[in-house]
Write a structure and sequence with these properties.
Blueprint lengths: L1 H10 L3 H5 L16 H9 L5 H4 L12 H16 L3 H21 L2 H25 L2 H17 L3 H17 L3 H20 L4 H21 L3 H18 L12 H14 L3 H10 L10 H17 L3 H14 L1 H5 L2 H12 L9 H7 L6
Length: about 375
């Protein structure tokens, strides 16, 4: 991945021109959860958030109830963090429609609440699309999350939206943009942190932005910067003294360690990846954060693939699958790793490889 990024910069071309497909997508595709086509359709509908431009009498027959909408958004986030993408995919299209309609119906404080819920709705949609490898639609969702956060007049939601954009830019190889938006957004939060005006939520968002910057720097082969951002995020986690999930960031000491694993595998440092993975203890995370737990095994499996230890890699990916099946089945990095393993397959030593590849949809027999 890092070699492709370097080549694209030297040649001054988009990475897709080198690979022949969008950067984050696996070559032969893979499984798609139910509802993804409807999500694409809803996101491609251009509403321009008319209530923010010209608020007036609602044309919506039945206004979405904000309390019920809050509950639905929370449910969507729990499904996302539990890696239940099939169920989430069925709920997201209508959730987007309802949240958009709410912003058109309400005014004043209620409208700002509706925009905050819309921002979170776009956020969870972006998180799902990024996980599935649809970087272009994830970009649309992230951009709309930032805009909705602005209309909600909520600096933390704006910052979380900026983090989402940074993650999408990282996936598409736009690493300078990814670093710029994550670091500038973190800097914008610092006056409130110094004045103790933002509470734990501010520290969580600030730390999450630095973790995003750390992964982007690692993908850019900048080990010094990646280490520095991880250290700074670690200080924020120490300030909180616990694993939290403010604004669905999953931020805390454990997630800092998990990002250390992700940064090490992006740098191609197998020994460091294994060292981080052996030290992390995910039991402190909230019970429903299966996606974060599975990510440890996924990154560790990728490290063993880099080491060409396919026997161990197969076992580790199998552990991830037992913990969070859909996290593995829909994961673009897992599919890329499995394809690499299939190129040098020894069926007697890796009997689980082909069954796992079939379950991810990259082979049919």
């Amino acid at each position: 991945m890092s070699v492709l990024i370097d080549l694209s910069r030297v040649l001054k071309v988009d990475i897709a021109e080198l690979t022949g497909q969008p950067f984050a997508l696996a070559p032969n595709g893979g499984l798609e959860p139910e509802g993804l086509a409807d999500i694409r359709r809803v996101l491609m509908r251009y509403t321009e958030l008319p209530a923010a431009i010209n608020p007036g009498p609602s044309t919506v027959d039945a206004a979405p109830d904000l309390i019920q909408l809050r509950s639905r958004v929370d449910t969507a986030w729990r499904l996302r963090q539990a890696s239940r993408y099939a169920q989430l995919g069925r709920q997201v299209p209508d959730l987007i429609t309802q949240a958009e309609q709410a912003t058109q119906h309400y005014q004043g404080d209620d409208q700002r609440t509706a925009f905050a819920l819309l921002a979170e709705t776009y956020q969870v949609t972006r998180a799902m699309l990024r996980k599935l490898g649809d970087a272009h639609l994830a970009w649309i969702a992230a951009d709309r999350a930032v805009r909705a956060g602005r209309h909600a007049d909520n600096p933390l939601l704006i910052a979380v939206g900026a983090r989402a954009l940074s993650q999408v830019f990282t996936e598409t190889g736009q690493l300078d943009a990814a670093l710029d938006i994550s670091l500038s957004s973190a800097a914008a939060l610092e006056p409130a942190l110094r004045g103790n005006r933002s509470g734990p939520e501010g520290w969580s968002v600030w730390g999450a932005l630095l973790l995003t910057a750390a992964v982007a720097a690692a993908r850019d082969n900048d080990i010094g910067a990646a280490s520095d951002y991880l250290r700074r995020a670690g200080r924020a986690a120490d300030h909180l003294h616990a694993d939290r999930n403010d604004l669905w960031t999953s931020f805390g000491p454990t997630n800092v360690a998990i990002h250390g694993i992700s940064a090490a595998v992006e740098l191609g440092d197998v020994s460091e990846t294994i060292r981080w993975a052996e030290q992390v203890n995910t039991t402190a995370l909230p019970a429903d954060l299966l996606e974060r737990r599975a990510q440890v095994f996924i990154d560790l499996g990728r490290a063993y693939v880099q080491r060409r230890d396919d026997v161990t890699a197969s076992a580790v990916f199998r552990q991830a699958e037992e913990l969070a099946p859909e996290e593995v089945h829909y994961s673009v990095p897992v599919r890329e790793a499995l394809r690499e393993m299939l190129k040098r397959e020894h069926r007697y030593t890796t009997p689980e490889l082909r069954p796992l590849a079939r379950r991810t949809g990259i082979i049919s027999s």
